[in-house]
């Protein structure tokens, strides 16, 4: 009986080791966590004056890679191709201010992590604008959005499709903010923290609506063929919430963050 018992233990240990390491087997490149990001969604992902990627999501993804025993490698792409890229296996993970929606969570095209930061639907306009003081004033105005952004759908849900008309779409925040600054559009709609950061950290003649239209969460997106990686990332996110790592990262970039407890179902 003893040899059988020993063999059983060996097999159990081997199985445990394989399970623990299985996410590495499905990586695009051995020993590397390949991360898709736009580099154009401050303060989550952006470039500094030395052309280095920085931001909340960059710090978080780098920390995750380190704790997974991997080297982070960032691939920069426009947002419109980001989710298709992770679905097709171009990245192991996307870290780029991705809203965690019910539709995305239910999708078989990729895995979504738990939310790591609370965000919301925000709107901004030129500081000279006097006829938009609340969400009740936005209908009939010319909207601008980053192409592929889902927040405009929340405005349509709250006020109807006729309210938003046909928004102008832009490849990134730089182009969107420039047109708003030049009054080619009346307001922008997107996640709350990006324009809030861009407006407060620069001298743009723009202002935010004071309230967010609902609070949601941002999450990481993991390629569909690596569920073990998704599980390992979720485990680390839980650890970061408990040990203060997430608070330290978000405070560095935006001060006090919205509470994850305020995220709507």
In the CATH scheme, the class of the largest domain would be Alpha Beta
Q: Percentage of helical residues?
A: 25-40%
Residue runs with pLDDT of under 50 for 5 or more positions:
6-20
Taken from the alpha-carbon principal axes, the silhouette is globular
* Percent of residues in β-strands: 15-25%
What is the chain-wise order of helices and strands? HEEEHEHEHEEEHHEHEHEEHH
Radius of gyration: 21 Å
The helix/strand class is alpha/beta
- Overall mean pLDDT stands at 89
The CATH superfamily of the largest domain bears the name Periplasmic binding protein-like II
Largest sheet: 10 strands, mixed
Integer tally of domains: 2
Spatial separation of the terminal alpha carbons? 53 Å
Number of helices: 10
Please name the CATH architecture of the largest domain: 3-Layer(aba) Sandwich
CATH topology of the largest domain: D-Maltodextrin-Binding Protein, domain 2
3D architecture notes:
Strands 1, 4, 5, 6, 7, 8, 9, 10, 11 and 12 form a 10-stranded mixed beta sheet that branches. α1 crosses α9 (227-243). The chain has 2 domains: 2-118 and 217-258, Periplasmic binding protein-like II (D-Maltodextrin-Binding Protein, domain 2, 3-Layer(aba) Sandwich), CATH 3.40.190; 119-215, D-Maltodextrin-Binding Protein, domain 2 (3-Layer(aba) Sandwich). It is built from 10 helices and 12 strands. By secondary structure, the protein is of the alpha/beta class.
Topology of this structure?
Layout: H1 2-25, E1 32-37, E2 46-47, E3 53-54, H2 56-67, E4 71-76, H3 82-87, E5 93-99, H4 102-106, E6 111-112, E7 117-126, E8 143-146, H5 151-159, H6 161-164, E9 168-170, H7 173-181, E10 187-191, H8 193-200, E11 206-208, E12 215-222, H9 227-243, H10 245-254
Parallel strand pairs: 1-4, 1-5, 8-9, 8-10
Antiparallel strand pairs: 2-3, 5-12, 6-12, 7-10, 7-11, 7-12
Helix pairs in contact: 1-9
